[in-house]
Amino acid sequence: MDFLPALVIALPLLGGALALPLRRLGERGRIIVLVALAVASMLGVYALLPGVLRGEPRMLSLVHFAPQVELYLRVDAMGAMYAATVVTLFLLALVYSAGYLRRGGHETRYYAFFMLSLAWMLGVAFAGNLVTLLVFYELFSILAYPLVVHDETPEAIRAGTKYIIYILVGGSLILLGVIFAFHLAGDMPLTPGGILDPGSDRTLLLVTFWCLVAGFGVKAALMPLHGWVPDVHPAAPASFSALLSGVMVATGCFGILRVIFEVFGVELVTALGVAPVLTVLAAISVLLAAILAAGEDNLKRRLAWSTISQMAYVVLAVSLLAPRVTAGALVHISNHAFMKGTLFFCAGLLASQAGIRRVSEMAGAARRMPLTMAAFTVAALGIVGVPPLAGFISKWVMGVGMLEAGHPLVLIVLLGGALLAALYLLQPVWMAYFRSPDETAPERLRPEAPPSTLVPIMLAAALSGLLGLAATTPGLPLALAERAAAAFFGSVAGGGPP
Amino acid sequence: MEGSAIEVVDLRIVLAPALSLACALLIFAFGRRDLWRAVFALSASVLKLAIVLSMLPGSLAGTVYVYELVDFPPGIGIVFRADGLGMFFALVSSTLWVVTTVYAIGYLQGAHERVRFFGFFALCVSTTVGLAFAENLLTLFLFYELLTICTYPLVIHDETPEAMKAGRKYLAYTLSGGVAVLLGVVLVQDLAGTLTLAEPGILSLEAGRPMLLLAFVVLVAGFGVKAAIMPLHGWLPTAMVAPVPVSALLHAVAVVKAGVFGLLRVIYNIFGVELLGVLGYTHWLAVFAGFTIIAASVMALAQTHLKLRLAYSTVSQLSYIVLAASLLTPLAALAAIAHIANQAFAKITMFFVAGAVQRTTGRTQIHELAGLGRVMPWTMGAFTIAALSFIAVPLFAGFVTKWFLCLGALQAGEWWWVLLMVASSLLNAAYWLPILYLAWFREPRGLPRGVREARALLLAPTLVSAAYVLLLGMTARVPGMPFSLAQAAVRFVTGI
Question: Domain range holding B398?
C-alpha cells in the first residue's frame, strides 16, 4: 500500500499515454476509459485521507536520479487536501470536456495533455522535497501550453505565448531559489518548521526567499506578476480555464505555503521580516483585482480577475503567520476551486449554447438556461461568502484567525474584497434573473446544455454547498487544513472548529 | 595518486581501435558492394561498442586497463590507458557511433563516393577511441591530429565549391590548433619531464609562472579550436555544408568532443585542480566560456536555417562543459563530464531530425517546418525531447547538467554563473520553443500529397537517441549508465 501515492500519479499518466491509441474505441469509449482512470486515481487519493488524519505520514522515494537528488513523495495533510481537490475537479472537468469540446478539433492532444496535467499536479501535491516539487511543477506548467492554445485562434495563440513567457521566467526564478536552498541545506525533505539553518548568510536567505516566492507568485497571480491570468483564462477552453482558475493558480499559493512553512519555517520568516511585505502586496492584489473585476464586461475575464483577488486572500492570510488563519487559507484553496470551477463551467456553457460572452448580454439568461444559472448563482453566492456555502466557511475561519492574530486592518481588506465580490458576481446573477431578455435577440435552438455538461456543473455546485454545510466532517478540507496548520506551527493550538 | 585503482594490462584496449581500423581498411578494399560496405561499417562500430561495454564492469569496479603499444618516442611511447574519464568518452562516442552508422547508411543511399565516406567514417571511429584511451599527452595529440585528417574528406564530401571552401577553413582552424597543442606538449614535457595523463596533475609551481601560463594558453587555445570557444569557433558553422551524418559527428560526438576532452585532460590531468586553484587561470577561461554561452545563443536566435541554428547552439552548449571544468569544484566537474553525453545525445537527435526532414520533405529553413508535427509526428517528437533537454526541463538530460553546474558554481562561491545558466536556459527556450510551436500548432502548407514519416533507417536511430536523452535524465543513478562513470572520473580528478 505504500506505493499508493505513486499509483495515483501513475494512473493519469497511463491515461495520457493511452489517449492516442484509445482513438480506436471511438470518442465515447475513450472518454469512459479516461474517466475510469481518473476515478481510480481519485479513490486512491481518498484512501490516503484516513491515514493522514490519523497523522501517519507516508513517504516514498521514487527515483534517485542523481546522487543527492531524488524524486521523493510524501503525503501530508496539506498535500492530501490539495490532491483531493485537484483530482475531484479534474474528474468533473473531464466529464464536462466530453460534452463541451467541439468535435473535430484536437481532442486527442487535449485529452493526452489533460491527463498528464492531472498526473503532474498530483505530483506537486505529494512532492516531498524541493527538487520533486520543482520537477512536477515545471512539467505541468510547460506541458499545459497545448491546453491553453487548444482553440488555436489568434487570441489563444497570443495568450499562449504570454503564458509560456511568464511561466518560463517564473520557473527560472524557482529554479534559482531551489538551487540556493539546495546549496544552503543540501537534499533535505520538506519539513514543518523549515530546513534552512537560521544562521546562514542573511542576504542569501533573503535572495532565496524572494526567488521562490516571486517564482511561485507568477503562478499564484500575485500582483504585479499576474499579467498572464486575464488573457489566458478567457482564451483557453472553458473546461480547462476552470482548472486554471480552480487549481492551477492555487498551485502557486501551494508552493508559497510550502516555502514559508516547510523550507523556511515560521520562525525564520519572522526573523527575516519579509512577511509584512507579502501582506501589503497581497492586500493590494485583493482590492485592486476586485475593482478591475467589477469594471470588466467580458464574463470570463471578470472571473479571471476574481481569481486573482480570491487567491491573494490565501497569500494575505498566510503572511500573518498565525495558525488559525493559515487553516482558513488552506480551506479557501479547496473551496475556491470548486466554486470558481463551477463559474467557469457555466461561463463556457453560456458562450457555447447561447453565445453569451459578456455580462451585459446576460439579460434573461436564467429563463433560457435555468439549471446552468442556478449553479452559477450558488457558486457566485459562495464566493461572495454567503452562509452556509463553502466560501463563508473559509472566510469565517480566516476572519477569526486574523482577529486572533491581532490584525483587524487585514480583516477590513478581507471584508472589502467580499463586498466587491458581491458587486461583480451578483450583477450577472441579477441580470440573468431580473432583466427581461432583449426582444430582438433571436431565440436559440438549444436552450439548455446537454446532460454530460450539466451533471459536472451540478456536482461542482453541490460540492460548493456541501463543503460549507458539512465543513466539520472529518476528511473534508477543514479537518485536513487544521491538521496541516497544527503541524506547521508545531502544536495543536490552532485546531478545533470555530 | 589515489591508491585504489588497480592497473591491469589488457589487450582489449588496443583491440577497440584496432578492430575499427581493420574494418575501415576492409571497406576501402572491398566496399564497392553496398551490402559488404554496410556490414563492415556496422561491425566497426558494433565491435567497438562491444569491447568498450565488456570493459565497463571492471572499470566501474575501479580497474584501470593499460597497454603499451610501442615505446616510441623512447620514454614516452604510444600507451593506452582506460580510466574513468576515458571510458566515459569511449562509451558515449561508441554508443553514438552505432546509431550514426545506421543513420548514415540510410541517409547516403544513392550518394556518390560512398566507399570513401564510410571508409573514413570507420577511421574516425578508430581514432576517437584511441583518443579516449590515450595514456599520455603525445598519444592524445597523435590521435587528435589523425582525427582532423580523417574528418576532412567527410566535410568536403559533396565537393561543391562551398564544401571545398568550408574544408579549407576547417583545416586552417584545426591544423593551427594542432600546432598550438604540439607546442604545449613540448613545453609540458620540458617542464614536467613526463606527459602521463594518469595523475591528477603533473606540473608544479616550480616550473615558474611565465612558462606555466604559456603552456596553459597554448594548450587551451589549441584544444579550444575544436571545442569552439569564441573567438575560435569560426569553422563550425561553415562546416555545416557537410552531409547531415557528418555534421552530427562533427557537432555531437567526435571532433568537438575531442577538443573538450583535451581541455578536460589539460585541466584535470596536466595542471591539476590544486595547481590551477593557485594559479587562477581558469577564472579567465570561465569568462571566455560564459561569454560564448550567451553570445552563441544570441547568434543562434538570429539564424533562419535549421542546421545553422543547431551549429550555434552547439557552440553555446560546448562552453557549458568548458565553464564547468574551469570552476574546479567536484560537482562542477561532474556536470562537465556528464554534459559530454547529455549534449551529444540531444544534439545528435536534432541533427538526425534535421536530416530526416530534409530527406523527406526537402526543407531546411526553420519557417518551413510549420505543421511538420502533423506529418512526421515521431520525428518531431524526438526533436521535442531534445529541445526540452536543452531548455533544461526537469527529467530531461540537460537538467542534470544544469543542476550540477549551478551547485558546482555555488560550491566555488561564484553565484553569478547560476544567473548566467538561468539566462542561457531562457535563451534556449527562446530559440527552440518557436520551432516546436511551428511544428505542432500550425497547419502544414505546400507539402506534396503523400509525404509521410521519414524512412525507418532514418527514424530508428533518431528515436533511439531521443530515448537515450530521457534515459540520461532519469536514470543517472543506474550503474553502467554514463553518469556512474562520470562519478568515478570525478573521484579521481578531485581526490574525493
Answer: 6-494
